[in-house]
Every structure is written in structure tokens, then in C-alpha cells.
Specification:
This protein has three helices and seven strands. It is α+β, with helices and mostly antiparallel strands. InterPro entries: Cupredoxin, Phytocyanin_dom.
């Protein structure tokens, strides 16, 4: 099974998606001779690529995505059973052209870059700071003064009597 799907809604790359199993391979080539022979034996590393399911489990269902990134004619075939499947029709040609771009609904300018909100107005002055200082043990001094006053009152009263 084969299908064409967008790689991502914001990119123009398409995928050829092959639903197969792990004992099958997908061959992508730009070489018509390799395609016609249904084998990769005489292909170059620069024009022929082999995709597999990436699993060691034999015969399990798998999906093989192949990115369509190069414009031009591409050939796909299965080389399973020494190319026998390809010789019996499991092969096709695909022409990849330049896309039309994004649809109008996605073709919008990007949002403006983020700018942080303005901070408080700066007139070159810091906000006023109130610092309250009090001597240490100020409360003890009041108590001590009260005691001294009481002592003086008592002494004065006792002198009067």
C-alpha cells in the first residue's frame, strides 16, 4: 500500500508512505537502469537508497516513510525475493515537481517578535525609601527611666513625711 502525505503542515516536503511488513524493503532510485533490472546490484550509493522497517522481528506490519525532497523522476520497487516482486509489478515511477506553496489559509506573515512590556517610568531617581532607626534597647531605657522616676517620687514622699 502506498500513499502521499505531507511531512508537516508548515513544510513543503511530501512523504511517500509504504505500508508493508518488516521482511520487505523499499528501494528508491533515480537510476532507470536499476529500476528496469529490479535489482540494486549495479546501482550507485548516490542514486539508490534502500529503506526497511528497522525491526529485527520478521514479518511484522510496519510503515516506511520516504521523504520526497528531490525534484525529478524517482523509481520505487520491492527487491524482495531477489527482485521477483518487482518483476511481477511491485514497482512504480513517480515524478516529483516543485510545489505551489502553502495554501492561503497557512500563507500568513509571521507574528511580530516578542517585546517585553514597558517597566515603570524612570526619571533617573529611585523611589523614596523610608528608613526608621531606633536605638537598641529603647524600650528598656523607658522602663529604667520610669523606675528612676518612681524611686525619686518615693524618696520625695518619704522626706515629706
Amino acid at each position: 500500500m502506498f500513499g502521499l502525505f505531507p511531512l508537516h503542515p508548515m513544510t513543503l516536503v511530501q512523504l511517500a508512505v509504504f505500508n508493508t511488513n518488516t521482511n520487505q524493503t523499499v528501494i528508491q532510485t533515480y537510476n532507470k537502469t536499476t529500476y528496469d533490472s529490479c535489482t540494486v546490484d549495479d546501482s550507485l550509493d548516490t542514486d539508490t537508497f534502500q529503506y526497511n522497517g528497522g525491526s529485527n522481528e520478521f514479518g511484522s506490519p510496519t510503515t516506511i516513510p520516504v521523504p520526497l525532497t528531490i525534484e525529478g523522476t524517482q523509481y520505487y520497487f520491492s527487491d524482495a525475493d531477489d527482485g521477483e516482486q518487482c518483476q511481477h509489478g511491485m514497482a512504480f515511477e513517480l515524478k516529483v515537481g516543485h510545489g505551489l506553496g502553502l495554501p492561503p489559509s497557512l500563507n500568513q506573515p509571521p507574528p511580530p517578535p516578542y517585546t517585553p512590556p514597558p517597566g515603570p517610568a524612570d526619571d533617573g531617581q529611585s523611589p523614596p525609601v523610608t528608613v526608621v532607626t531606633s536605638p537598641i534597647n529603647d524600650g528598656m531605657r523607658i522602663v529604667a527611666n520610669s523606675c528612676w522616676l518612681l524611686l525619686m517620687v518615693l524618696v520625695s514622699v518619704s522626706l515629706l513625711v
